[in-house]
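Complex 333.
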Amino acid sequence: MNFYGKDFLRIADFSEAELRHMLEISHQFKKMKKEGKPHKIFPNKNIAILFEKTSTRTRCSFEVAGYDLGMGVTFLDPSGSQMGHKESIADTARVLGRLYDGIEYRGFDQAVVDDLAKYADVPVWNGLTDECHPTQALGDFMTIEEHFGELKGLTLAFVGDTRNNVANSLMMMSAKMGVNFIACGPNELRPSDDMINRSKPIAEKNGSTITITSDIAVLNNKADIIYTDVWLSLGEPQEKWGERIELLKQYQVNKKMMDSAKETTIFLHCLPSFHDLNTSIAKDVNKVFGIEEMEVTNEVFESEKSLVFEQAENRMHTIKAVMFLTLYERRNK
Ligand code: CP
Ligand code: NVA
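Predicted structure with norvaline bound:
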């Protein structure tokens, strides 16, 4: 297995064994961090992290992981660089590829991060596009593995906007790791046929299933993990709130839904989450639509079954593993 120089653009690009190795390295880095063991492996390397959309977890995970590995980190967004408005992504990539040892990119079209990878001669890591969020899926599976001790045979149900970037990466990751995946949401927000057709044969090969349903009763006594995400993703027009609330309100993760699953079922969410009125967006939505909690109730979010902050922490350990593996040149092959 050799990751050196490779990009991390989508889960589908990696085999089960490679993903397993990434998870193992992630566990090792977490252990080292907890034990206070320094691991400044790359004191002479620098990375650039590019964000065309806002971020807290992904940005901070790349920054902290970079510093922990001994690297210099430069954060760029459209307001602080020429990127996107005065200089194309392709030109930016070619410049940054000369200066940096690795580049993270968060933006809109998957084609942009694919192009970046094509033009820059250094590893490019996808920090979220409209199509997928691969570092999220890796962190989530680390959290699931930590909690249950294994992955194979578990059932992960993604409830809500089942065609969004997070759902896409989780479907593919589930297929690769032999986890049963249920996409539970309205037909209007069903995963694309392309996504389903690519994931299903991989799942079958690994002994798991992909189920697409609009019926929440399918979760009854079945889901080991209930996962949801915001009803309107970054970059989607605010005018869509009304339509989304109408489509998704019956898919809100609440106590009744959690109780219908299993005694041992856990709740996951990539965050940020609208589970109360403590954000300006939630307040605005509340004024217009009268809704106080969106994709998950505060009760579930704050419950013992909710591992969302462990999950957020694991973003850093997994991102560190991805950077380490793609930047580390093994000389004794
Ligand atoms: N989950 C996640 O990607 O969060 P951020 O948007 O804050 O990076
Ligand atoms: N689907 C969400 C995920 C955020 C981490 C979005 O794209 O905004």
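The mean pLDDT is 96.
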